[in-house]
Amino acid sequence: MQSDKNLNTKASRTSRQAALYVGRGRIKATEKTLLELFFKTVEAAPKAPALAYENVKLSYVELYSSAKTLAAWMIHEANIKPGDRVSIYLPNSLSYGVALYAAWLTRAVVVNLGISINADNVLFQLQDSGAKLLITAPTLLAEIQPMLLQTGIRHIVTTRQSDYANMKAFLHGWVSVSRLIRVFKTTESLLIHTRLRDILSKRSHPIDWPVAQPNDIALMQYTSGTTGRPKGALLTHSSLLASLYQGQLVLGRSIPMRCQILCPLPLQHILGITNLLFSVAKQGCVALTSINNLMEHPEILQHPYDAMLGIPLLFDQLLKKSNDLKISDKLTMFMCGGSPVSLSLHKEWYARTGHFIIEGYGLSEASPLIAATPPNRVKIGTSGVITPETQVRIVSNQGGDLGFNQAGELWVRGPQLMRGYWQLPQVTSEVLTHDGWLRTGDIASLDEDGYLRLLERKKDVFWVQNELVFPREIENAATEHEDVIDCLAVQEELHSDHENGVAQRAIKLFVVAREGLTPERLSDYLHSHLKGNEIPDKIEFVDQVPRGPMGKVLRHLFHELPHKVVTHVDNALKSEKLSDETKTEEPIHKKSRHPKDH
Question: φ and ψ at 489, to 5 degrees?
Answer without folding.
Answer: -105, 135
